[in-house]
Amino acid sequence: MKPLPYVAAALLLAGSAFASVDPGLLNLIMPDAKVLSGVQVDQAIVSPFGQYVLSQVQPNDPGFLKFISTTGFDPRHDLREILAASNGASGGIVVGKGTFNVAQITAAATAHGATVTQYRGVSVISGPENGKGAVAFLDGSTAAMGDLASVQAAIDRKGSANPGVDPALAKKASDASLTNQAWFATTSPLSDFLNGKIANPNLNNLSQNNLFQSILQASGGINFASGGIVINGDAVTASAENAKAVVDVLKFLVSMVPANNPTLKSLADAATFSVTGTSAHMSLSLSEQQAEQLFTQAPKKAASVQRN
Fold it and tell me: Which of 174, 168, 235, 148 is nearest to 34 (CA)?
């Protein structure tokens, strides 16, 4: 069973309903989580861009149809929300809300070589490749995916009266998810997560300088507005001077966007930056046409990278 490609496609179909992150999913997150990200999926068809993405999906793709028929799960309709968490080191988990035919999914996984074990009354599906990854359906509407230990820990937290995740991080996640359908939030220094994760060595070194280390908290997301898309981000720094310096660096990076890519250049020029106290803010609005153009260009760029 290989559900990830189809689930990933559904992640692009975030809707425009202003609903906060599901508290039941937050309760499944580990206490040492440092960064959260999430996507609201269930309102895709009310977003013009979501409708456009949905129109690009190949509904008659044999692999997609086989996946639906064998698992009884159609991510276009059965997936409601996804929440991912990381502790900044090796630990991480993805949990989700939707409609899951647990018996059919388990049977399909077993038929493809997966192993099913019981943990506290919950069926845990482990992949055939040394059992490194695991998926568990805590009930017909809740799923968890990650390494075996993380999934078992999420099962332990289900039904607990106390939220698993740090309350400060949960509050920041709730605030970000109220105004964005795809979002992220962290209450730890941003440099902790950028270190070693940026392909460009110059940008990776930049992320570790004193300025970026002064970013104590960050959040942002994408709002699938009726007329297009709004991308926004906020960074809480150690001082007002640091906030202004962060904005200056972001403006400099934007100025480096090559002029030979008119689409990216026009978007970069449209980005706005501001400072409020110790916080730096960025916002970028894309029209529906610009969003669709970027979406169609992305596969071509990926294919070009693979050929090279």
Answer: 168
Taking residues 208-214, report their average pLDDT: 69
Cα(194)–Cα(198) distance, integer angstroms = 7
Residue from 245, 295, 244, 287 nearest 266 by CA: 287
Per-residue pLDDT for 120 more than 80?
yes
CA distances from 272 to 38, 71, 275 (A): 24, 45, 11
The terminus-to-terminus CA distance of the chain in angstroms comes to: 30
Contact call for residues 112 and 1 (beta carbons, < 8 A)? yes
- Spatial strand order of the sheet with 122-126 comes to 115-119, 122-126, 133-139, 142-147, 92-98, 79-86, 35-40, 182-186, 215-223, 228-237, 279-287, 272-276
**What distances in angstroms separate CA 29 from CA 15, 47, 126, 266, one per listed residue?**
23, 29, 20, 39
Q: 168 to each of 124, 207, 235, 285, how far by Cα in Å?
A: 31, 24, 15, 29
Instruction: Assess contact for 3 and 70: CB atoms under 8 A.
Output: no
Phi, psi of 63, deg, nearest 5? -65, -40
**pLDDT for 130:** 56
- Under DSSP, the state recorded for 267 is H
Average pLDDT, the chain: 80
Residue 28 in 3-state DSSP?
coil
Q: Are 42 and 17 in contact (CB under 8 A)?
A: yes
Question: Which residues in the chain belong to E strands, given as ranges?
Answer: 35-40, 79-86, 92-98, 115-119, 122-126, 133-139, 142-147, 182-186, 215-223, 228-237, 272-276, 279-287
What letter would DSSP give residue 13?
A: -
Q: Which pTM value belongs to this model?
A: 0.82
